[in-house]
From TrEMBL, chains A, B:
Catalyzes the ATP-dependent phosphorylation of thiamine-monophosphate (TMP) to form thiamine-pyrophosphate (TPP), the active form of vitamin B1. Residues 33-146 form the PurM-like N-terminal domain. It comes from Phragmitibacter flavus. Mg(2+) 5 binds at residue 204. This is Thiamine-monophosphate kinase. Substrate binds at residues 60, 245, 296. Its EC number is 2.7.4.16. Keywords: ATP-binding, Kinase, Magnesium, Metal-binding, Nucleotide-binding, Thiamine biosynthesis, Transferase.
């Protein structure tokens, strides 16, 4: 037994320790560690995607935040994860914890945001539950589906792959983290048309998520072209690297497909940028971001 | 806009209000309101069951409670719901909120309990997440599967049906609520062999859950034979009716099947009681429990 706290060991170490030795039955394609879990559907040639994610008052939003936006965010985060695997979202369950003294109108606002996002992305909210608790917390569990050949993992990047991101990064704390559009349609389109070697959504900041992708892809390093980094207006490169909650897609693409991808993307999504920001290399010597202390850890002080 | 609080309108009214007007896409068999949501599996003749449930420190367990038991309870609650639909549990996602100062050993205890229950009932834990927050909260999202012909809803009771419960009721607060065995195997056996007209698990107390089953089954009333109520040792009838968190199965069975059911049950589950406690009637005039103020509401003061 140890008296270490979760803050001392950090989120990644905690997850590693508690998921160690998990029993796994039949039908699990991808367990803990990717954007979604992937399981085989009984008697079907589809795979099911499973994802859950929670937003907590005081951690992911403030008490005074418009509850409609909080609801949108709670649903949009999981929709983003389904898209990052190349899948389509389907069914959601909503767990809501609110203090007993919470106003009904506040809760109605939360659900209005949840419903708006769900409808926009074709998600049926099929259940959930409410409980009391000291702060507001919404956890959304979402299922999706994907054809096995279109399922994109985060650990398949190869040395030489070009690294792309959608949209622009940084400064999400100024409001974007509450109103972002999950890249579900884009993720699915990318998977079905260009099957990236690896894909994930950027939730903890590029400085943390990019090395993560390299690490799980057999220990790849990367070079990042900071001058090409698509930075949101008013943001520094440092903020674009470290702010987190961008919810843009990060993907690794074979260099042979770059030109075709860029052309097709411009045609299909003319209003959204897709930028090549660097390259994966063999070996972790080229890992400029690895030394950064940036990115988001839920248990850091 | 209203300034009512959730405590003032109560849990049922709150759920009714926020789930009103939910958009529903294809494939939803049963939406909010039953033990689980039921959805069609893409390209398969199975149905999928979806359930999520949270336990919160200070609401469902105390800070000093052995965390291994808390973990067991969190998983056992959702396993119980899958069983109450006649299904088999499959894949779980675990959302864990803990304070930053929480000891790692406490979290390892939670997971030890979760894993023990998962393994016992054949559940693969395939993912989840951790976040910080002011108290400990575990939410488990669980999928299951059921053949359409064996899926048992809670709203199918018919006038004249015999009402049964498994096990004994009452006094769960003295420890049973942390260590109970979900009746997953029993629920599936009942569904596959005797297809009850309606089934649910008892979480809020018989005084609340039995009228609920009658109400959703087209507004049935019931008579309850209090003398036959299987009461746990040391409990009063009142406690057996109102304590909640029994996690026993409540089911409605055609009177023609009673004798065969009771015989087969004794053979199959000799160590667990199955007791006929009353009967459903047409019309709500016979609803002795409806007037009771008992049962559990998460937002009552």
């Amino acid at each position: 037994m140890t008296s270490e706290t979760v803050m001392e060991i950090g989120e990644d170490a905690l997850i590693g320790r508690v998921t160690d030795g998990l029993w796994t039955g039949d039908g699990v394609v991808i367990g803990p560690g990717d954007d979604c879990a992937v399981v085989k559907a009984s008697g079907s040639d589809w795979w099911n995607l499973l994802k859950t994610d929670a937003v907590v008052e005081g951690v992911h939003f403030l008490q005074e935040t418009d509850s409609e936006k909080v609801g949108w965010k709670a649903m949009a985060r999981v929709v983003s994860d389904i898209g990052a695997m190349g899948g389509a979202p389907l069914f959601a369950l909503v767990t809501l914890m609110v203090p007993k003294t919470c106003e009904v109108a506040y809760v109605e606002g939360l659900y209005a945001g949840l419903k708006r996002c769900a409808e926009r992305f074709g998600v049926s909210v099929v259940g959930g539950e409410t409980t009391s608790g000291p702060v507001v917390m919404i956890s959304v569990a979402l299922t999706g589906r994907v054809r096995p050949r279109f399922c994109v993992r985060r650990d398949g990047a190869k040395a030489g792959d070009a690294i792309y991101v959608t949209g622009r990064l940084g400064g999400s704390i100024r409001g974007h983290h509450l109103t972002f559009e999950p890249r579900a349609e884009q993720g699915r389109w990318l998977a079905e048309n260009f099957k990236p070697h690896a894909m994930m959504d950027l939730s903890d900041g590029l400085a943390k998520d990019l090395p993560r992708m390299g690490r799980v892809s057999g220990g790849l390093g990367c070079v990042l072209d900071e001058e090409r980094l698509p930075v949101n207006e008013g943001c520094s490169v440092d903020e674009a690297l470290n702010d987190g909650e961008d919810y843009e897609l990060l993907l690794a693409v074979s260099p042979r497909r770059q030109m075709r991808l860029e052309e097709a993307w411009r045609e299909r999504f003319p209003e959204l940028e897709l930028t090549c920001i660097g390259k994966f290399f063999k070996g972790t010597d080229k890992m400029p971001l690895e030394k950064s202390s940036g990115g988001w850890d839920h248990f850091s002080s």
